[in-house]
Amino acid sequence: MPRTTALKPEQVPPESKPTLDAFSKSLGFTPNMLASFAQSPIAFNAWAAFRSSLNKALDMKTREAISLIVSEVNGCNYCLAVHTYAANLAKLPADEIILARKGHSSDPKRDAAVQFARKVIETRGQVNDSDVQAVRDAGYTDANIMEIISMVAMFSLTNFFNNVFDPEKDYPAVPLAGSI
User: Fold this and answer.
1) DSSP letter string, 91-141
2) Res. 157: pLDDT tops 70
């Protein structure tokens, strides 16, 4: 049961309105998570700027694969539904979505990024030298590795928000990891 309410358009703080309106226009509707998050213009706009910057990093399929493993590890059903939907839009095949949720990819370079993201979230960043070397060996620069780490943090933020506030689901539910 939701622990906060999604704001109606007339309730959105003026400082959040332009950001929320841009998301709504882009998506064609206003997701409940965003209509809830907009209650704090400071947090909402900071997250939106972070997300917008990270949308320039790596390719969309890799970003979505990272979002799926982070959401899986963090147990965020809302984000798993959102990012499964987005992964489909990115033309990530269904078997790749399942692999990403399990921390892998059939693409060797993407696999290294997803495995590294999983290590970062599971170890709270306490990775070892071989973890860093593996992602470098796959062709990622230190700047790319910083982007992967930033994505782990950004996706964790929305995972935590959704796990705490449990907004009403507005994307198709996905099965639990154990059943895929």
Assistant:
1) T--HHHHHHHHTT--SSHHHHHHHHHHHHHHHTTT---HHHHHHHHHTT--
2) yes
Q: Which residues contact 106 (CB under 8 A, 6 or more apart)?
A: 95, 96, 99
**pLDDT (tens digit per residue) in 40-55:** 999 999 999 999 999 9
Tell me: do 48 and 101 sit in the same domain. no
CATH number for the domain harbouring residue 144: 1.20.1290.10
The angle formed by the CA atoms of residues 59, 129 and 150, to the nearest 5 degrees, is 35
Non-local (6+) Cβ contacts of 141 within 8 A are: none
pLDDT tens-digit map of 52-70: 999 999 999 999 999 999 9
- Asked whether residue 1 is domain-assigned, the answer is no
The model's pLDDT over 132-153, given as tens digits with 9 standing for 90+, comes to: 999 999 999 999 999 999 999 9
Tokens of 145: 């590795």
Give the residue numbers spanning the domain of 49.
11-54
54 neighbors 63 (Cβ within 8 angstroms): yes
As given in the structure block, the two tokens for residue 79 are 């984000």
Q: Say yes or no to pLDDT of 180 above 70.
A: no
Q: Is residue 3 part of a domain?
A: no
Question: To the nearest whole percent, how much of the chain has pLDDT over 70?
Answer: 97
Shared-domain flag, residues 70 and 49: no
